[in-house]
Amino acid sequence: MQVKTILLNKNVLEGNDREADILRGELRERGVLLVNVMSSPGAGKTTTLVNLINRLKGELRIGVMEADIDSDVDAVTVARRTGVKSVQLHTGGMCHLDAGMTRQGLEELGIEDLDLVFLENVGNLVCPAEYDTGAHLDMMILSVPEGDDKPLKYPLVFQKCSLVLINKIDAIDYFDFDLQAVRGYIADRNPKAVVLAVSAKTGENMDSVADYFKTKRGEMLCQNKTTK
Amino acid sequence: MQVKTILLNKNVLEGNDREADILRGELRERGVLLVNVMSSPGAGKTTTLVNLINRLKGELRIGVMEADIDSDVDAVTVARRTGVKSVQLHTGGMCHLDAGMTRQGLEELGIEDLDLVFLENVGNLVCPAEYDTGAHLDMMILSVPEGDDKPLKYPLVFQKCSLVLINKIDAIDYFDFDLQAVRGYIADRNPKAVVLAVSAKTGENMDSVADYFKTKRGEMLCQNKTTK
Hints:
homodimer, alpha/beta, Rossmann fold, 8-stranded parallel beta sheet, 8 strands, 20% strand, globular
């Protein structure tokens, strides 16, 4: 349950896309699937990761990087509740992560004995979507209390993500949230996105999320074999 | 119910603080109180403004500027549900507003017949807190489903705001949210902040919010008289 905290250096933004591609390639070659997790503050990123990791850790070796402006709350929570290797990344006030910062985090985390790494980005629907972290998959979490109009207001993050979780679905009777409508808004912006309604609190449908990542890691290994 | 949409030009950031001070002074001289409203996506900024404006519009002449990456949802909602003058500001992908953008919005809105203007900032707890818009007051809305740890994770926005609303308080039994703890976290960062637990949906405690703004506008007029 050791949790390191790293203060990230600001990366030169120019060339981030290229750096991201290089990082993605290196990780792929080593069979490490990197997943970038984005959401608003309080949508449930950490709770979702804890629930998910506890379903996956019997089969996959997992590491977590938790980005935050300057608290250590999340990495400690993940380490305590899952036992997997976690590091806290401090962005020093910055609103997003880029590929250089992600690489710094991975170096601290150490990936030699890992199959799957989750990167919890800063809670923000705007800036993180604009920077390629080098992840193979982008996942976002929209929580029911935030409202079903978010794909209209923050289209980029929905366009970028291959997996969208609609979290806190257990609270849907309490809020004015139209699941059918939100599926339509997401499909308009990103027809290929997989959309799963879940509750990280009750565990509802979280097995489907776990299966999704097992499949994706398997696909990566399979592609590696094919190309070698 | 006319709603204009303005695409904002990117302002040179250098000198923003000075520009903000000039704008604040000009508005003060004309007796127009400008309030900058910040929160996460989906915390209830628009619903809160609609509820608040309907309580205030009998006594004060109000205008609203709704900032968003690229949708028009909010300005239309405010105009339809309150009847007050509204403009939509498109930030062109930017994650915040600065003083120059705010001035552009005010020019479109027209302030000659207004007492109070609300500026709904982009839904984001990081970037908007870093830029002075020229507002006299900064208000933030934290909603119960987001969790009580947000002042630990996004300290700057809590430091900056003179008024913090804890919204969706009607849902507190449903979520694991410690109101006493969050008041403590806010007080640690900003001992002068006024913290009000409200529900914009049910109207609970919204009269106190309306009173707060009536008092603040009165104080501004009083100060203007004293200094003239």
